[in-house]
Design brief:
Blueprint lengths: L10 H19 L11 H6 L11 H13 L19 H13 L9 H17 L4 E5 L2 H16 L3 H4 L5 E6 L4 H9 L7 E4 L9 H13 L3 E8 L11 H10 L3 E5 L24 E5 H4 L7 E5 L2 H8 L28 H35 L4 E3 L11 E3 L7 H18 L6 E4 L2 E4 L10 H21 L1
The structure holds pyridoxal-5'-phosphate (PLP).
Length: 471
């Protein structure tokens, strides 16, 4: 009998080797490494190879794959403090291996796996105190566009058939994530529909300006379609005043979406729960489990109060898609057809660690951010924002002695950030805040601890002074 694409006798050795490699990788992730490894000439050459017509020895292929991963930028390491990192929760990686091995398609009713998705969505909603259910997507970008499509369906029900027949307004803070703007573009509304509402001193949406804009739009015959509140902006971690925004949304009958892709999970902690007051009044909330719920990419959850709004937006009744129960199929409530079981990594995470441990890990990151802020505030070589971080992003500027000109300080910090990345002990990203360049450490990794904060200051001090003396 012909046999194709099976591992056959190699199955056991490949599994053994894979598990040994994973064990080594996880042990390596426990601690920072002193610098990033070079991308070797050998790896570069291997990655330029042409299509192999015949397979090589499987152990060699596996070894090459691990080399590529080892020479890649890994966010899982404890001193990766750039962007909003993810940290590859170990039990989540196991779940991904299992889910990919079974390769279940949660497009139509997949029996137990469909129930698991519903359960995990409910757990996530309970975790942050939102009265609704969840839907798994590939990321915050897709969750946000899914929410916006539902908001448009509610504001202009005929749009599904007739397109955008009326002008609509979408309201975001001027520092909201650009995926929201992209969603507006993809829905064909045009970015002119986006009202970038000014922010206050805490980088939160100015609610009076929001209300004003809605009133003006209504007076001009524009239909307010959606208010997108940020619960943790990407730039500074600011949480918009959700209760006040919810009041306006109710008053003008506008869908309220909360982009909590980054910050949403913090609503489940005692430490900062108050910041999210009013979250439970939203129509929908985006949470990226691959950010501050620590699981491997890609795993986002769109929580919605009224699940039927999604079915009204995305449902189709095609002959080849059977409906086994009264429940809409996942394809009826999402953008996707073929869908992996993304929920398994969060489900297994909750099962293995419990919600309490997740809350503790998030609070731990917030404390690291507060400590970073406190240390920088007390040091004349640093400038910080006037108020301490709302969540776990701590914008910092290193200030060389006697330097006062903002343009020089920006140039110094841009050069410093490049030097830090080049150095490789700590990984940071720069950010433009109020027209100036800042360093922007962000703590979202359960592996990061106080020794990593120490290392952050050591590296900034050392490289900051070196650049200062150079020029
Ligand atoms: C607030 C916010 N919304 C949405 C996104 C997009 O999420 P994703 O990268 O999962 O598509 C991000 C990413 O950083 C974010 O910070």
């Amino acid at each position: 009998m012909d046999s194709f694409l099976r591992l056959g006798d190699d199955r056991q050795p490949v599994l053994d080797e894979t598990f040994e490699r994973v064990r080594q990788v996880w042990t390596g992730f426990d601690h920072a490494r002193e610098g990033e490894p070079e991308l070797s000439a050998e790896t570069r050459a291997m990655l330029a190879d042409t299509l192999p017509e015949h397979g090589v020895n499987r152990m060699i292929a596996l070894d090459q794959a691990v080399h590529v991963l080892d020479q890649s930028l890994a966010q899982s390491r404890p001193r990766f403090l750039a962007y909003i990192g993810s940290s590859g929760l170990e039990i989540g990686a196991v779940a991904d291996f299992l889910a990919a091995s079974y390769d279940i398609n949660v497009a139509i009713d997949a029996r137990a796996s469909s129930l698991l998705e519903v359960q995990t969505g409910k757990w996530m909603a309970d975790f942050i105190g939102f009265p609704g259910r969840g839907l798994f997507t590939s990321g915050g970008t897709v969750s946000n566009i899914t929410a916006l499509a539902a908001a448009r369906q509610r504001a202009v029900p005929e749009s599904r058939e007739q397109g955008n027949t009326v002008s609509m307004g979408v309201y975001v803070s001027s520092e909201a994530h650009y995926s929201n703007k992209r969603a507006v573009e993809l829905l064909g509304l045009g970015t002119r529909s986006v009202r970038a509402i000014p922010i206050d001193d805490h980088h939160r949406m100015d609610v009076a300006a929001l209300e004003n804009h809605i009133k003006i739009d209504i007076a001009e015959g524009i239909t307010p379609m959606c208010i997108i509140a940020s619960a943790g902006t990407t730039l500074t971690g600011a949480v918009d005043p959700l209760r006040e925004i919810a009041r306006i949304a109710a008053q003008y009958d506008v869908w309220m979406h909360v982009d909590g892709a980054y910050g949403g999970p913090a609503a489940g902690t005692n430490l900062v729960r108050d910041l999210f007051d009013g979250l439970d009044l939203a129509d929908s909330v985006t949470i990226d489990a691959h950010k501050w719920m620590f699981v491997p990419k890609a795993c986002s959850i769109l929580l919605v109060r009224d699940y039927s709004a999604l079915a009204a937006t995305f449902g189709h009744n095609e002959a080849y898609m059977p409906h086994v129960t009264d429940e809409p199929n996942p394809v009826d409530v999402t953008l996707e057809y073929s869908r992996p079981l993304r929920a398994l990594k969060l489900w297994l995470g909750f099962k293995a660690h419990g919600a309490h441990e997740f809350r503790q890990a998030i609070q731990h990151d917030i404390r690291l951010a507060r400590e970073t802020y406190a240390r920088a505030s007390a040091d004349p070589h640093f400038r910080v924002l006037p108020t301490r971080p709302q969540l776990s992003i701590v914008p910092l500027q290193h200030i060389p002695a006697g330097m006062t000109d903002p343009a020089h300080i920006s140039a110094h910090n841009a050069a410093l950030c490049a030097a830090i990345i080049e150095d490789g002990r700590v990984y940071l990203s720069p950010a433009q805040i109020d027209g100036e360049t800042w360093l922007r450490p962000c703590f979202t990794n359960f592996r990061t601890d106080m020794s990593d904060v120490d290392a952050l200051f050591t590296v900034i001090d050392e490289l900051g002074h070196r650049i200062e003396n150079r020029g």
